[in-house]
Specification:
seven-stranded mixed sheet; L-glutamate N-acetyltransferase activity, acting on acetyl-L-ornithine as donor (chains A, B); autocatalytic cleavage (chains A, B); 12 helices; L-amino peptidase D-ALA esterase/amidase; six-stranded mixed sheet; amino-acid biosynthesis (chains A, B); alpha+beta; ArgJ-like_dom_sf (chains A, B); Ubiquitin-like (UB roll); homodimer; 471 residues
Chain lengths: 471, 471
């Protein structure tokens, strides 16, 4: 049917069902979690449906000081929990021992009341912590996160009594799989499965654990930077761009400054390299806690100024783990039927490569073509060329290749600026896979670092989900 | 139904029919067109369907020199017709007398063959021109445009014989409504109606006419600048961001440099301020011709260095006319059911306001909410805050208002950073209109220039049209 005719053809369309993603949630042996943490998830009633967990708690019980680092949304309308967490980290020079999260309401654009509510969550959670030898100047040791609808205030008394329940004989805090899973469920909004992973690594012969969780399915195109106030502050400058929330806990001992540096690096290559819909939230936050519970008293905190080798191992492990967690968000993207990796190589700089990967990953035309399983490389190219770079792009050096995830042969569609005669049957084979990769090579050689973005397709289901979000 | 449940609910949805837009095409009295032009549209066979016009010709027959100015896409993959038109304008110091356009094939990413084809179109059209007293250095006086699929070469012999037909007794060139309409139809791709308008204005007691046409429905988010080579070149630097093609003809006499300056100003506020899908094309081009046919021999060319007043009148008329033409493209946006004006005021600079208006206009979450007729101002705010500005934005000064097009009362939803208690029934009333305006006031006072962007909603129909474009 011609395109013009189609535009007048009013009818029904069958929505391709979003493939079930629940197999991405699997039990993890309790021994794989880092030691020195207690977690739970509670139904406080922010979400109306009985039993849905909506308040999560994560406490460090380590006898060593716990370092905390974070990356926050660069959105000008930072939600109250973002502002409060920034203050807690700043006033404690990178020390914090607890995290409280609620889902169902973002506590964003809620004025003074919002700030009071976020602080109340911090203070109530502080009371759950065992006394600390290290002490902090203002006594607040809890970071806070919220996710949900913007512009509504929290049902704060419900949330506070849920937190309080953990001191009043109804404690469900634990460190086994069930406890971690409850916490992960408390993060969920439109997520279809809880996103929980663990990993272990070895430094100087000692084994440490990383475990973490995140959430997000829509309003996902984070661009997060380190805190904008306090000793960890950095110029929060960057390119343009859900709520994406995530936290990562380790039982390694890491100095606050090195933890922040490692997290900033990891976030750029993970959470700042994913897109569902190109929209940046007011609440995006990634927090990492390092409590040293698996290090003996004599093991110093990992610090890049003192032991570069140990730091580099930690940074690499944290980055790979963050990428694993970040991919889960795209996998569960609203309406997504595809998981597509956009790889850009041979660009003048990593930032250039990252910008192009971001633009291709957010192009509505590219994403609808992915949904339609159409190897429309012209749209990929148009998106690639629409970004001003630090040095001119040479169209006659650019190549585009589709790489299937099943190990079969790649399909070049453009080689050094010249279109290939594309085998459309083969193209369809690759694009009908759930996972594949699009490689854009700008031809600048292999010196430049490769940027990878993780994105999904744009479907009828996306329009349905977001055409009546609040109903 | 809960959002999570919805994600698994595979079914059919009824696609709201895109409202018919054909009433936006109306006859124009032939006396309203500028004098000294001949136009036509021909079926050459680029489009397969018999009778569909796909080659357009516009010739200036004025005895005075014709000035030509243009703004071209900033995409790194500029199509062959863009590169060739840039060269013609550069080598002729802003003089050109003809325009040839084809639809159905973009002649983009077509290598050497593409350049040869574009030049062949220029040369064949040059032969249609009457001898010129002014003469040009290389003899080429034709600009060229193409639109359609990327990566395919033109059926060039069909196109050349169509052009040649105008010299061989089959000439359909004319200056009446039917001729202008034929030319406008030759621009169309997924457009549902030809986009043709005229306007008159007076300078120093003399009446001049403007008439023009444009096309575009998808891959629309132009960012065009003046030619990158030749005397009219300017640093083509700008923010990020179909094929949009347009041409405007006037019978006023304007110097080439002033014509370019006026066009660059007008394009920023018109064609560079529209978005259908946020995707920038490799072919976007706007051309203006000024042939002086309505000025007597003694009337000098309008030039801002010599007669500022006349120049300012011309610039204002050109800008308003360009906005009228640009709006038609959004009105006909692929799958669009809404025409929404996004106005940003009180920003530190016009560029800041323009960037925010652009971001709000391209947000997938905002556009699906518009489709859903949902006053989800939280998404508007999140998009507003996601752009780094030249000065910090003050969240507590920001207001958001929905303004209906039917003259009834506006609906403030956020005032000085505080959410209003929104009358949802009234909100639905406004959002169910086909036309309305979203005003984002950053609270920086009325000194800053107001930026306006014109956008549409994101519908099931958009996904359908673009999910299988090439089929």
């Amino acid at each position: 049917m011609s395109r013009i005719l189609k535009r007048f053809f009013s009818s029904t369309v069958t929505i391709k069902p979003t493939p079930s993603k629940t197999h991405h949630h699997q039990p993890i042996p309790s021994s794989n979690f880092p030691s020195g943490y207690l977690l739970t998830g509670i139904h406080a009633g922010v979400k109306k449906k009985p039993g849905l967990l909506d308040v999560g708690l994560i406490l460090s019980t380590s006898s060593r000081p716990t370092s905390a680092a974070a990356c926050f949304t660069k959105n000008a309308f930072k939600a109250a929990p973002v502002l409060v967490s920034e203050q807690v980290i700043a006033s404690n020079a990178g020390r914090a021992r607890a995290l409280v999260v609620n889902s169902g309401c973002a506590n964003a654009v809620t004025g003074k009341q919002g700030m009071e509510d976020a602080w109340a969550m911090v203070k109530e959670t502080d009371k759950l912590l065992p006394p600390s030898s290290s002490g902090t100047p203002d006594g607040h040791e809890t970071l806070v996160m919220s996710t949900g609808v913007i512009g509504q205030t929290l049902p704060i008394s419900k949330i506070l009594s849920a937190i309080r329940s953990q001191r009043e004989g109804q404690a469900s805090l634990g460190n086994d799989f069930a406890a971690w899973e409850r916490a992960a469920k408390a993060f969920m909004t439109t997520d279809t499965f809880p996103k929980l992973r663990s990993r272990s690594f070895t430094i100087h012969g000692r084994e440490y654990k990383l475990a973490g969780m995140d959430k997000g399915a829509g309003m996902i195109h984070p661009d997060m930077g380190p805190p904008s106030i306090g000793p960890m502050a950095a110029g929060a400058k960057g390119p343009l761009h859900a709520t994406l929330l995530g936290c990562i806990m380790t039982d390694a001992a890491v100095s606050p400054a090195s933890l922040q540096r490692a997290l900033t690096y990891a976030v750029e290559r993970s959470f700042n390299s994913i897109s569902v819909d190109g929209d940046m939230s007011t609440n995006d936050t990634i927090i990492v806690l390092a409590n040293g519970a698996a290090a003996d008293a004599a093991t110093p905190e990992i610090d890049d100024a003192k032991d570069k080798e140990a730091y580099e191992i930690f940074k690499k492990e944290l980055t790979e783990f963050a990428i694993d967690l970040a991919k889960l968000v795209v996998r569960d993207g609203e309406g997504a039927t595809k998981f597509v990796t956009v790889t850009v190589k041979g660009a003048p700089t990593y930032q250039d490569a990252h910008l192009i990967a971001s633009r291709v990953s957010t192009s509505a035309l590219v994403k609808t073509a992915l949904y339609g399983e159409d190897a429309n490389w012209g749209r990929i190219l148009a998106a690639t060329g629409s970004i001003p770079l630090s040095a001119p792009l040479h169209p006659d050096k650019v190549s585009v290749t589709f790489v299937p995830s099943d190990g079969t042969a790649s399909l070049p569609v453009l080689v050094n600026g010249e279109p290939e005669k594309v085998d459309e049957v083969r193209a369809k084979e690759i694009l009908s896979l759930e996972d594949f990769e699009v490689v854009v090579d700008l031809g600048g050689g292999d010196k430049a670092e490769v940027a990878r973005y993780y994105t999904c397709d744009f479907s009828y289901e996306y329009v349905r989900i977001n055409g009546d979000y609040r109903s």
